[in-house]
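Hey L., structure's done. Input below.
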Amino acid sequence: MTPAAAEGVAENTATPSAPRPRKSVTGTRRTVAALFLLPALVLLGALVVYPIGYSVVRSFYNASGDGFAGFDNYRALFTDDGIRTALKNNIVWVVFAPAVATALGLVFAVLTERVRWGTAFKLVVFMPMAISMLAAGIIFRLVYDQDPDKGVANAVWVGVHDTFAESSAFPKAHPGRESPLTPQGGGFVTKAAVRTGDWVALPLVGVAPDQMPGSAKNAVRAKPAPGKITGTTWQDFTRGKGVGELGAVDAAELGYPGMRIEAVRDGKVVATAKAADDGTFTLPAKADGAHLRLPASNFQEPYNGLDWLGPSLVTPAIIGSYVWMWAGFAMVLIAAGLAGIPRELLEAARVDGAGEWQVFRRITVPLLAPVLAVVVVTLMINVLKIFDLIFIIAPNSSQDDANVLALELYRKGFSEDQPGIASAISVFLLLLVIPVMLFNVRRLRREVRR
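Output:
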């Protein structure tokens, strides 16, 4: 090989030189990045960093802000009854609200996966997410209204209750003037014992004509029967001044249909009867010498449902409204994760003889574990800051029982003018949220590495 050819080969086999880096027109890349990040950093510092720092500093000062209080404000977190109730309720929220919302979201996502109208169902379930907390609070304040004619929850509850336990038609009935009845144990009993062959009058008043049962007929004086006790229980009132005779059955007066009558002797019920539509009743001879009693069951007030916003149920009721809003959020995320599961695994399990429950429990749920963790952690962070629903739904009478840390922060800072304790609560809330956020960040990093 000639020297010229060798030189050409050497030039061809030489390592190509690295391209020169292009010089940025606006300067170094770090400078450009800093310029782009500067507005965001300014906003982050003004809206996040500064408020956090100020709250931390303010939490060590007294209410007026001119005296150092040390850890007194933080000590109040565990000695103040209102804050302790709020902390207890926050624990209930963190344990139950995310778990129930995630469980419902999982069930909805799995059950609607194979049905044609699944998309429409998901849209309906997700729709509450478009409603603000304020609007949802107003809605559920009405839903939980005590009056069954206004509150949907009590309307349903009363309807179910009355299906199995009929309420009394005569809650306001009571004896009138010169009545042969006297009160006893919530009901009424005759002053004198009754005898066979007698006609017994059991007159009552107090039931408005428009509230009488539809089956009620004009009262009739029962005919005496040998060896038996007969009687009439009726509404002893006729409209119009001076109309009708007190203690006598008048033509325009109505009987009490279904009224229960008991014959009581020596504290024991020896016979019972039920009034007909015209108020007449008949008792056997063994009731001779007994007193007749109209038991308290005849006069029970109509069932008015549950006190959803009372001290004992207000927190579960508000959690229910939260689940109504956020179950759709959980369902959408879980449905997205469910769509990414390889169908071959599910079909292989079914071919091997696994039932649907086994497929769900041993394959679907484990594969959805990362998505479920995201949903639960997100909801946990959200419920730690819950404020709107409780402030709007809980009435003043039970707001103390439904109290949470975010609401107590507002009350201490604005209603009770204790900004030092309010700042301590805000710092405490931040400390509660940080571990959950760190867990979420670590979990996301592990997912990226995979």
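The radius of gyration is 38 Å. The longest strand covers residues 229-235.

-- N.
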